[in-house]
Fold this protein.
Amino acid sequence: MWFNFFGTLNTCFILFSLLGVYSQVRTIWRRKQEHIQNPTHILSLKMFMVSFFAYYSFFVYGMSIEPFNHYIVWPRLCASVLVSIILYEIWRDRKTRPSFLCFSAALALLLIGALFGVIGTAYEDQGQQIMAVMIVCITGLIAHGYYSQITLVLKAGETGALDRKMSAFILLMDISTIAFSLSMGLTQGWPLLLLASVSAITKIAVLYLFRWVRFSPIARARRAAQKEGFCMAESSQQ
């Protein structure tokens, strides 16, 4: 009973998180329409690549266990596609080799995952252990990726193209995922519990930064310093 209840609740909050990720996509598109230079400014390539891995690992993990877990699979597939769009926009904006490699890797993994869903079968116990190890590794990458994003905001004193709704909605999803993983039992649910807990902590930190950039004198000073440096660079080019 609790499994179905928290599974349904988690799916609802995952849909909210999808709205959050879509809000980030719309923020980039809006900045492009307003002809803002560097529409993906401040967005961390590492963070969004790791976010893709997190969603994607849940997507594959949901297909690898018995029974096939619809609560995990389909919402995470949608989220993986949306984050892939963000990676595409970062690549289009920056035209760097790392951004191209990240977008290409995400696209390739989505195709592989779709192929597995069509012709694959559930893993044996050893395969499930491999998937669990992969999620543990991705948990570490999430911590590193969000550290990179937090560092960018702290250095710039601004959140740039980072969307507040995305972090808020994903935090709600993380909280519901923690409850859902506990209802699954620690034997099967501990990878979800670990990843969701770390993800929730990073989202709380990012949400705090939206307040920090508004009220902190340090943030104002860093924005002013960057603006002054930009003006000096422009004058030197004239």
Summary: The chain has eight helices and no strands. The two ends are 70 Å apart (CA to CA). Residues 135 and 191 are 6 Å apart (CA to CA).
